[in-house]
Amino acid sequence: MFNESQIYSLHQKYSHGKYREELLDLVWTHSLIVKEISLQIAHNLKSKYQINLDSDLLTAGALIHDLGFYKCFDDDFNKTEKYILHSQFGYELCHQENIPENLARFCLVHNGIGIYPNIPITLEEEIVTYADCFHSKSYPNYKTLVDIKKMLVIYRPSDSIIIDRLKNKFGLPDLIKLKRKYGQWHLKTNKWLKSIKQK
Ligand SMILES: [Fe+2]
C-alpha cells in the first residue's frame, strides 16, 4: 500500500501555480482531517462490532481522495473546470501513477455523499466518503449533520436519507480534538483565502 509520504509526494507533484505551497497545505491538511475522522470511525466499528477494516487502505484512501483538486484550477487559482470533475481527474492521475485500482477508486467515489454513478463499494470507501462530508475546504471549517443536510437539500432533497443511513451505520464523529488540533490552521488558512479572493 502507498504510504503517507508517497501520497504527499503526489500532492506536491500536482499542486501548481503561484499558490502552489498554500494549495498543497490546504488540500493536504483537509486530507489529514478526513483521515483522522475515518480512523476514528474504523476504531468505533472495531470496538462496537469487532469489524476489522484495512487501516492502511483507509489511511491511503483518505489522503489521496482529493488528488484531482489541483486540476480544476489554473496557475492563478481561477476555477477552470467544474469542481465535481475533481473525482474523475484524481482517478485518472492515479492511473497515470500506477496506483492500484482499489486505492484509485477513493478519488472516483467520494464525490458528494457517494451517490451514483460511482458509488462506494468497500466499507473503507464508504467511510472516507462519509468522513469527507464533515470538513469543507472552500473556507475550511467543520460541518455538522445539520449543515450537511442543508447543503444536500439544495441539490437533491432525497440525498438527506442517504446521510441519515450513513449516520446510523457509522455514527457521528467526535470533532472536539480535531477542532483544537487544527484551530490555528483554520484561522491562518481562512485569512489567506479571504486575502486572495479580495484581490
Ligand atoms: Fe475531500
Overview of this protein structure:
By secondary structure, this protein is mainly alpha-helical. The protein has a single domain, classed as Hypothetical protein af1432, CATH 1.10.3210. Helix content is 63%, strand content 2%. The protein is built from 10 helices and 2 strands. The chain has a two-stranded antiparallel sheet. A hairpin with a 4-residue loop joins strand 1 and strand 2. Helix 3 packs across helix 5. The chain is globular. Bound molecules: fe (ii) ion. Fe (ii) ion binds next to helix 2.
Reconstruct the topology from this structure.
Blueprint (H helix, E strand, L loop, with lengths): L3 H11 L5 H30 L5 H10 L21 H11 L4 H9 L13 H10 L2 E2 L4 E2 L2 H11 L3 H12 L5 H6 L1 H16 L1
Helix pairs in contact: 1-3, 2-3, 2-6, 3-5, 3-6, 4-5
Bound molecules: fe (ii) ion.
Fe (ii) ion (FE2) binds next to α2.
| Bound molecule kinds, no repeats | fe (ii) ion
Euclidean distance between termini CA atoms: 42 Å
Q: How large is the count of helical segments?
A: 10
State the name of the first-level CATH class.
Mainly Alpha
Shape annotation: globular
CATH overall fold name:
Hypothetical protein af1432
The string of secondary-structure elements, in order, is HHHHHHEEHHHH
Helix content: 55-70%
Query: If strands are numbered along the chain, what order do they take across the biggest sheet?
Result: 1-2
Total beta strands? 2
Percent of residues in β-strands: under 5%
Rg on CA atoms, Å: 16 Å
Q: Which CATH architecture would you pick?
A: Orthogonal Bundle
Give a quick account of the main beta sheet: strands, pairing sense, barrel closure: 2 strands, antiparallel
Question: For the residues shown, what is the average pLDDT?
Answer: 94
Helix/strand/pairing category: mainly alpha
Name the poorly predicted regions.
none
Q: Can you tell me the number of structural domains?
A: 1
Domain HD: 27-135
Pfam family, one: HD
Organism: Candidatus Shapirobacteria bacterium GW2011_GWE1_38_10
Protein name: HD domain-containing protein
